[in-house]
From TrEMBL:
This is Guanosine-inosine kinase. It comes from Marinomonas communis. Catalyzes the phosphorylation of guanosine and inosine to GMP and IMP, respectively. It is an enzyme of class 2 (transferase). PANTHER family: GUANOSINE-INOSINE KINASE, HEXOKINASE FAMILY MEMBER. ATP binds at T282, A283, G284, P285, V286, G287, G355, N400. InterPro entries: IngK, PfkB_Carbo_kinase, PfkB_dom, Ribokinase-like. One of its GO terms (molecular function) is guanosine kinase activity. Its cofactor is Mg(2+).
Amino acid sequence: MKFPGRRKIKHYFPVAQANNGLPKSEVQPTKDTYIVGLDETIVDVIAKVDDAFLARHSIRKGLSNLVDPQTASAIYQELVAEERISDHFAGGTIGNTLHNYSVLADDKSVLLGVMSNQINLKSPEYHYICDTSSKVDMNHLQGVAGDIGRGITLITEDGERTFAIAPNAMDDVEPESVNEDVIANAAAFVTCAYPLRHAGKPIKATLMKCLQLAKKHHVPVIITLGTQHLVEEYRDEIQQIIEEYASVVAMNEQEAEALTGETKVLKAAEQTLEWCDMVLLTAGPVGLYLCGYTDDQFKRATTHPIKSQDIADFNQWEFSRPQRKHDCESPIKVYSHIDPYMGGPERIRNTNGAGDGALSALLHDIAANSFHQQQVPHSSKHSESHLAYSSFAQICKYANRVSYEILSQHSPRLSKGLPEKEDSLEQAYWAR
């Protein structure tokens, strides 16, 4: 596993130990450090069409249209035949997060969900696999007879975007497909709130089983909220799940307001910490916040400028390491904030996935803590129980850097890790 962030010390783990075992792509639960996630597997398809095409398939222009599998298949086949498709992107909030985690950590993750039993060359399923890191273990996906989800973006000559969404079989993952050992030995389990929309589909029962297994085996649960409208519709249920299962909640400022009713991001984070152990809150041009708990006796004061917003001097203990509230004798709330990296990209090419990128960095640090504890169990880093390896402030820097990389490219998925060396401009930024 690569260690998260840039450090002055070259080696953190034993590097001279012999390793005579052959590498395996499939996760070995009792030997590997990995995270596991449940997702609705979907592929985003981008195509240019005319108004006649939309009329022919009864697609309402400029809106998001939910279509049945037969209509979706007809639309896709016509797009292929007329060579209208410009690109395919593997999608899904958790799929994106796992891919980015595996790229950053150069290590394994496990994806739970569905995949078509039969995959044809250049099909959406084929593109999903091609666009996903080889470090993402897909051996635990459930095979289905139909297609995985398709989100087709239809762009007309006037630039208007119209969406045809076909869930297909993406919500058909059955609880029986979940291997308890895979979750029991994971460094973290990550999921999103989207399956809550599908009470009549197997994926919701599968989600609840995964949450129960993670709780049973004391595996940190990370939940990302999805969209503001989803949170508004399922607020009570989401809050209940967070209180019962979640260690970490990831959300943006709109989702935070929908969840807590607080319009101020710090106050929303403060309220959410009454239900979980840590909050990752991305706030667009304002930057991102990482909030959580540490034991009063282990708090570490920041050397950064002290900040005050709706909470006075809120970042004064941001050099502390995150802990679960129940692991603290005298828990105190800790808040850290960072402005967009280098002021944000000169040109933002993609806003989809920046929050997922930040979450993948946090997951990397959580997994690194688990890995380091396995490799160096007697290290002073583990004399007390911590949720992550680095401080709140250090994780903020790392998450911020990954978000910048996502914003600077067209895809929500990283094609490679972060640059190994800082250039002079970056050094000047952090020297401020």
